[in-house]
Amino acid sequence: MCNTTLLLVRHGETVDNVNQILQGQTPGALTAKGEEQARQVRDLLRNETIDVFISSDLKRSIDTCRIIAEPHNKPVNTTPLLRERDWGGFTGLFIPDLKDKPWPNDVETLGQMKERARRFLQLLRREYAGKTILAVGHGIINKAILSVHQGIPMNEIQKMANAEVRQLNLE
After folding, report:
1. SS3 for 84?
2. What is the tens place of the pLDDT at every residue in 44-94?
3. Helix axes 139-150, 110-127, angle to 10 degrees
4. Whole-angstrom Cα distance, residue 135 to residue 155?
5. Sign (positive or negative) of CA dihedral 46, 139, 143, 27
6. 3-state helix vs strand vs coil in the chain, percent to 5
7. By the 8 A CB rule, do 54 and 82 touch?
8. Do β-strands 5-10 and 52-56 pair in parallel, antiparallel, or remain unpaired?
9. Tens-digit pLDDT profile for residues 90-138
10. Known catalytic residues?
11. Cβ distance 72 to 50 under 8 Å?
């Protein structure tokens, strides 16, 4: 079997992270700190062999991935499979205000997210077997990917910090 490695990264800090706004599938913009976090990951991984760079198709992840990919001179591919959870009617709202509010019917379910995560991992195994892939996603979709990969519930996965990297062996 080929050794396929996934370096899973969460995007850098965003304006909406700081302001406690539920971003969901909005583009999002990195803060100066978020850009610095991405540069720290870039510098940490500068001498690593990374064959493929993939990002969510949302701006905050693309910007993070482009910074990390700079020294590797490789393009950043995007996929909607790595998008953050679709929060439906909660998108754009102040998170503390949502505490006891009933969830809208248009919020993406955990099952739907885990199915996207499964499809993403299948894509990597099929298209990039034997490669090292760096993928930049978001807090909750990354939890779904880790949950599917490890075969444990999402609530048992520790939340990823902004610009945190976790390595997975996809065999």
Report:
1. coil
2. 999 999 999 999 999 999 999 999 999 999 999 999 999 999 999 999 999
3. 70
4. 22
5. negative
6. 45, 20, 40
7. yes
8. unpaired
9. 999 999 999 999 999 999 999 999 999 999 999 999 999 999 999 999 9
10. 11, 84
11. yes
